[in-house]
Give the backbone structure.
Amino acid sequence: MTDPAAVSDDPVLDDGAPENFGETNVWINPLRDPADRRLPRIAGPSGLVIFGVTGDLSRKKLMPAIYDLANRGLLPPGFSLVGFARRDWEDEDFAQVVHDSVKEHSRTPFREEVWQQLAKGMRFVQGEFVDDQAFDKLRETIEELDKAQGTGGNFAFYLSVPPKFFPQVVQQLKAHGLADPPKGSWRRAVIEKPFGHDLASAQELNKVVHEVFPRDEVFRIDHYLGKETVQNILALRFANAMFEPIWNRGYVDHVQITMAEDIGIGGRAGYYDGIGAARDVIQNHLLQLMALTAMEEPASFHPKALVAEKLKVLTSVKIPDDLGKHTVRAQYAHGWQGGEEVPGYLEEEGINPKSKTDTFAAIKLEINNRRWAGVPFYLRTGKRLGRRVTEIAVVFQRAPYLPFDAAATEELGQNALVIRVQPDEGVTVRFGSKVPGTSMEVRDVTMDFAYGESFTESSPEAYERLILDVLLGDANLFPRHQEVEESWRILDPIEKYWDAHGKPAQYEAGTWGPAEADEMLARDGRSWRRP
Amino acid sequence: MKIDLTDTTSSKINATLIDARRAIGTATVGMVLTLVIVTDEGSAYDALKAASDASREHPSRILAVIKRPGRSPRARSQARLDAEVRVGSDSGTGETVVLRLHGELAAQAQSVVLPLLLPDAPVVVWWPENAPVNPEKDPLGTLAQRRITDAVAAESPVEQLATRAASYAPGDTDLAWTRITPWRSMLAAALDQKHVQVDSATVEGESDNPSTELLALWLAERLKIKVERKVSEGPGITAVRMHTVDGDVCLDRPDGLLAKLSMPGQPDRMVALKRRETSELIAEELRRLDPDLIYASAVRYGVENLHSASSVREVVEAPEPATAPVPSKTAKKTASPSRTRK
């Protein structure tokens, strides 16, 4: 249904809080109490339909996440999982595949009784996306599940398919009445990145999806936002008194946000070539991390309030005037990485040897507001870099005056607060300390908060959190369409400049990027941290 | 790394902890709390194992206090502290110190424990059994923000609940309460789905199972209804029936593993509702260290009723809704001895 209000161009969201299944007088559950914080948030009766269920993402992440949710007791009784794919499978074959992938990839131990609970609600629908019969069957399946499993008509459609199929799938959902929820229930769409490859395509995609699903029922997954450490940025900043006062241009010299991968493009040549690192990573993950690092305190943790603050940051982003000097793109060249000989990007199978696609991108952004004016944000990402790491480093200015000998503070760097997003999640604070001994000498030391050394085993995986939030209708951790469009607005001119000017620099695989990236910071009198 | 110290003191233990950490190369560990386990030689092993499993979620310093007052008068008059310091791979993610308090020292445990507490971090005391009558007034209990008892381990568990209610202080909690979290969350979820008024309820479970009682108390307190307590063969809690005008909302778990949720007008559904390991219970307890108000109101709600088992039969005959706000503890047979203390 396309409600005219739902497609209005209101810059601030027009969605409300998740409603209590459309009841007018709000039901207050006598067994719940805000003080009773042992009781977890359990999703209401619902089911999940996964398109492209035979894909890697579905097998390695989604299915294990669903099992883990069930194992933690967070899924509603009768939760149903419907797979939709071309494969000629019966329900049992599908259940077997889920069973295997759960056993292999789930975080929590496998328990037969949990499995039985889940298996009862598993269905498989075979078909192509053009196949009307298959979608009729899907509708029958959903209706059958409402009867047998009590899913109450609430279904989320997870589009784990290449974006070129999005229009087809959503149109089919609409044509077969699957996108229209029966009274008092909901239908939601979940889509994965990439959300387009530039502003125009992103707007087109949003239009296609919003034509069928109301915009507050569309959930865009950026799995980075589901990570505990990313959510912790908000806790770190807004729950503490000691960081926020120095979180501004008065104290911060610059911010570096890095997401490095040690792998190459692997088998994703077809997807990656022509997209590149900036579109693949900076547009979504890094700009989101930047927005969370730089935003003002939201009025509340309501999705509307959060989005409003993030949007304010994104809209005040200013890209450098001289893009040639303040942005760098590069490709990895043949080299040795961690003891392994690896081919260069242009030598990878399936890549055009003349390709200009970037596997490394570094850009400088500024945020034009009172808090951040003049503080550069350096964003970089790349494949085949030194190691796999994602971090946000807030680097502080040097002390205005040092009452020591110049020699005593020679080894003193700038103070830094580093949020380690992955791996080894945690926070590092870097500051100067006296070296033990008879002379006064100050050197950098680090203070570490590890997010629980083995926390990771028991803390929920990003997809678990996000799937649960979809079922609960909680949109806090999902980028909204305005954010997506705003991010493209930032990146588009840079991509356009790159297209028109020269070709990517080269860097040896296994290093921290091209010399040009170092020069880019050296121009500002700074240097990259080695993450 | 494991270091044995015989006839030692707290300050020597502290020094050893620092040395041991240096020796294995980890200067500091981000430990979030101190967990004091008061136990005896017999159950120390299980309790320590559960605690170090739970420390995977909550890196902590675990202090196991084992009291050995000694048998002979001579042994009782002497005092000696032996300690076993475990750091690194021998101790989950934090540090463990097993303290053996001999002779007179057994009564002065707090003097040993106080210097060993982590600075600033919260302190949790857990008595796997033989919890003091008043945990808050206990010399070790006063050091703690959180005091965990376990009514199941008591000789007469149900009576124990009455004791807990009488001596409740903010920060007290009981593993019998922790055990019913999955039940409570499933029942709350059922009412999220079915918006009906519950007129009365029945809770079935093993006799002498304090979790069953607590669940009944919680329902009675939250819903302001009569709750009938039936005895079944177990294991643990076997069923909860909430009676409504449309029919019963029923959560039935005969085997301790898989439960069936039936609601009027909806198909029956299976829910995994496994009885949990102690380590999981401890991990849940350590997640929140503020006073559990809901536990407080549940355990206090039915105290009087817990004692007055004599009224049981009348209630079975004619359950009058809304006259008595207290839940009726009913048994098919006459009430178990534990309920007839007064």
